[in-house]
Design a protein that fits this description.
Layout lengths: L8 H6 L2 H38 L3 E2 H4 L14 E8 L6 E3 L8 E9 L4 E10 L3 H4 L10 E9 L12 E2 L4 H4 L6 E9 L28 H38 L20
Parallel strand pairs: 1-2, 3-7, 5-8
Antiparallel strand pairs: 2-4, 2-6, 3-4, 4-5, 6-8
C-alpha cells in the first residue's frame, strides 16, 4: 500500500486566494480610513490656527504685565501697544542664528502708562545694511502698533560699537537701554503697523500660531483606531490561513493509504507477486 504525495505549502496557500483577496480589501479600507481621519485632524488644526490668527488683538497691558515672566500662552499672541518709539540711536541690529542670515532692526517702544518698553522688530534686510546704511529714523509722536509676541531669545551678546547683537536676549539688553523691558519682544503684524516699518525693509513674517495638538484629538484617535483594525485584520488573516493549511495537512496525514485496487487500471503496480 502507498500514500499520495503530500501537497506543497505553496499549493495549499494558493487554494486560499479568496481569503487573501478579502484580507487585502479589509487592510486597504482600514489604511484609507486612517488617513482620512488624519486629514480631518490636520484640517481641524489648520482651522484653529486661522481662527487664532484672525482673532482681534487685545491691549498688551490687559494680557501681560511689565516684569511678569513670558507665559506659554503668550507666544504668537497678537496684541496692541500704544506709546512712542525711543530715540533713533537706541535702536540696534540683530544678526545671528535666529535671523537666518538676515539683519533685524529692533527698536524700544515705550508703552503708555508704564515706565517700560517692548522691543519691536521693525523689519529685516540684507546683511550689508548693517554697515552700509544708517540706522533708519523712527516714527515721531504717539503710535499704536499691532504686534505678535515672541519670547526672549537665548545667547545674545552685548551690543558692540556698531550696536549689533546676536539675539534678542532681554536680560543682556537691560543695561543697554534706559527702560524696564518686557521679557519678550514683538514682531510687527502687517498691515496695521506699516507706519512703524523701516523704509526699504521687509516685515519679519510672524510664525503660524501655535495650536495645541489636542485640537481635533477625536479625529486623531479615530485614525489610530482604523490602523489598529488594519493590524488586527492582518493578524487574523495569518492565523486563519495557517490554521487551514495545518488542517489540510492533518487530513492528508490521517487519510488511509491507497490500496492497489484504488489505483486506475492503467497505473502499474509496484511490488506485486508474479
Amino acid at each position: 500500500m502507498t500514500s499520495a504525495a503530500r501537497p506543497s505549502t505553496a499549493r495549499l496557500w494558493l487554494r486560499l486566494t479568496p481569503l487573501h483577496l478579502f484580507a487585502l480589501v479589509a487592510l486597504a479600507a482600514c489604511v484609507a480610513g486612517g488617513f482620512w481621519q488624519l486629514g480631518a485632524y490636520e484640517s481641524r488644526q489648520g482651522d484653529a490656527a486661522r481662527e487664532s490668527a484672525a482673532a482681534a488683538p487685545a491691549p498688551i497691558v490687559d494680557v501681560w504685565g511689565l516684569g511678569q515672566p513670558f507665559r506659554t500662552d503668550l507666544q504668537d499672541r497678537r496684541v496692541t501697544v500704544e506709546g512712542r518709539f525711543g530715540p533713533v540711536d537706541e535702536q540696534f541690529w540683530v544678526r545671528g542664528e535666529m535671523t537666518r542670515g538676515d539683519v533685524w532692526l529692533v527698536a524700544p517702544f515705550v508703552v503708555d502708562g508704564s515706565d517700560g518698553a517692548l522691543l519691536v522688530v521693525r523689519g529685516r534686510a540684507d546683511p550689508s545694511a548693517e554697515r552700509d546704511a544708517a540706522i533708519p529714523a523712527v516714527p515721531e509722536g504717539r503710535q499704536q502698533l499691532s504686534v505678535v509676541l515672541q519670547p526672549s531669545q537665548g545667547g545674545g551678546s552685548p551690543l558692540g560699537r556698531e550696536r549689533t547683537t546676536t539675539a534678542i536676549t532681554t536680560p543682556s539688553l537691560l543695561n543697554e537701554l534706559p527702560y524696564r523691558l518686557w521679557s519678550g519682544y514683538g514682531l510687527l503684524a502687517a498691515p496695521s503697523s506699516e507706519g512703524a516699518q523701516a523704509q526699504g525693509w521687509d516685515i519679519v513674517e510672524p510664525p503660524d500660531p501655535d495650536v495645541s495638538w489636542t485640537v481635533g484629538l477625536k479625529n486623531l484617535a479615530y485614525a489610530l483606531q482604523w490602523w489598529v483594525f488594519g493590524l488586527f485584520a492582518v493578524v487574523m488573516w495569518w492565523r486563519m490561513c495557517r490554521d487551514q493549511v495545518d488542517e489540510a495537512r492533518a487530513r492528508h496525514d490521517a487519510a488511509p493509504p491507497e490500496r492497489p485496487a484504488d489505483r486506475p487500471a492503467d497505473q502499474p503496480a509496484d511490488n506485486l507477486a508474479p
